[in-house]
Amino acid sequence: MDGHIGRVSGPARVAEPGEGIGLEELALAARNHGLPLEAMRDDVTPPGLHYVLTHYDIPAAAAEGWELTVNGLVRTPLTLGTNALRSFPAVTHRVTMECAGNGRARLSPRPVSQPWLVEAVGTADWTGVPLRVLLAEAGPAADAVEAVFTGADHGIERGVEQDYQRSLPLAVATGDDPDVLVAYEMNGCPLPPQHGYPLRLVVPGWYGMAQVKWLRDIDVTATPFTGFQQAVAYRYRQSADEPGEAVTRIAPRALMIPPGFPDFMSRARVLRPGRVLLEGRAWSGRAPVTAVEVSTDDGRSWRAAEVDPPGEHAWAWRRWRTWWNAAPGRYVLSVRAGDAEGHVQPLTQPWNRGGFGNNAVQRIPVLCLPPD
After folding, report:
1. What is the distance between the alpha carbons of residues 342 and 338, in angstroms, rounded to a whole number?
2. Cβ partners under 8 Å of residue 43, min gap 6
3. Contact (CB, 8 A) for 51 and 35
4. Dihedral angle over CA of 122, 178, 184, 186, nearest 10
5. In whole angstroms, what is the distance from residue 352 CA to residue 139 CA?
6. CB 319 within 8 A of CB 308
7. What is the Cα 364 distance to its own chain's centre?
8. For the chain, the helix, strand and coil percentages under 3-state DSSP, each to the nearest 5
9. pLDDT grade for 372, boundaries at 50, 70 and 90
10. In 263, 298, 312, 342, which residue has its Cα 20 to 30 A from 126's Cα atom?
């Protein structure tokens, strides 16, 4: 680590016992925002309500003059402006995107980073060119194994100065189930600046760290990428000195729209007795969601909720709902999802140093008032 950089960029750490969220984490939380859970009523999330995580600064970008290069082990290197990319047949996919650190702030001890609760998610219609089409145009060599994606955002992380870079195995990059997209539109409009304008990667089913924003270069390589965001960050680790396992696909999760109405400061929920609709969304990047269960007694008992049948959007969240006859008293509401591969949300989360993949069940304390 450069001695000067080390003064402003320290190593990853875990909070000390009893340590509250500090000013650095609050500064991150002010730059990055989650989805207001009531916005899950919409099938598609408006761009301003979709979660945002930006590692460094939002680059100054203009579509005019922006170029995407495809280089490395390819037959025909490409340099494509935004107009050239729009000349390819457009594809639109509805994709639920979730930050790998969603739920981190609820872990104990807490990994010190962006302090997400459960709201780091959103669903959008992304339009662009399938990555496989661009790679077919370039012609990867027979010994190519990965595609490395470089964004225009630049900064320092844990003492390493870097552009934001991630890679995908070539089999994923060139697959068509699902299409990985080089996207230039979100919900039918040009990408907003915070969502990667003018170009970004969209990788259905993978956590958000794979969805490189402000995309400017694709490099096809014969060896696995070992850059910081691949080999150091975004690994499931129990200790700092182990290599860990790569973070890839989204674990199943269901979230409930908090019922009733909230207290301003605590966000504690209050409702009136009677028949109450409990509803929300469920998704998984590993396999289709097959079941959602709801508890009104803090996980001691569960009952099945109704889940919308699979539709045309295989990589988007699905609506679930059930009714609850609420009587006066205090309750803790919970919801959990399971998928076709047998993954079910845990009641308590296995810990890891990065706070990644935390899909423990949501818990919502509720006060049901006496009758008027």
Report:
1. 6
2. 94, 123, 316, 319
3. yes
4. -30
5. 39
6. yes
7. 22
8. 15, 40, 50
9. confident
10. 342
Domains of the chain: 3-246 (3.90.420.10), 253-368 (2.60.40.650)
CA atoms in the 13 A half-sphere facing the CB of 370: 0
Q: Convert the pLDDT of each residue in 165-200 to its tens digit.
A: 999 999 999 998 889 999 999 999 999 999 999 999
Give the amino acid at 204.
P
Write out the two tokens for 220.
């096809």
CA distances from 69 to 184, 223, 307 (A): 15, 19, 43
Q: Is 26 helix (H, G, I), strand (E, B) or coil?
A: helix
- How many other CB atoms are there within 10 angstroms of residue 23's CB atom? 7
CA distance 35 to 127: 21
110 contacts: CB under 8 Å, gap ≥ 6 = 14, 15, 19, 21, 104, 355
> Cis link prior to 370 (omega < 30° from 0)?
no
Tens-digit pLDDT profile for residues 241-270: 999 999 999 999 999 999 999 999 999 999
Number of other residues whose CB lies within 10 A of the CB of residue 349: 18
Contact 356, 100 (CB under 8 A): yes
CA distance 26 to 113: 10
Q: What is the pLDDT, as a whole number, of residue 2?
A: 63
DSSP secondary structure of 108-155: SSPBSSS---S--EEEEEEEEEEHHHHHHHH-B-TT--EEEEEEEEEE
CA angle (361 as vertex; 358, 364 as ends), nearest 5:
120
Q: Give the C-alpha separation, 312 to 27, whole Å.
A: 39
Give pTM, 2 decimals: 0.96
CB of 155 closer than 8 Å to CB of 228: no
Cα dihedral 51, 359, 212, 75, rounded to 10, equals: -150
Residue with tokens 């609760």: 117
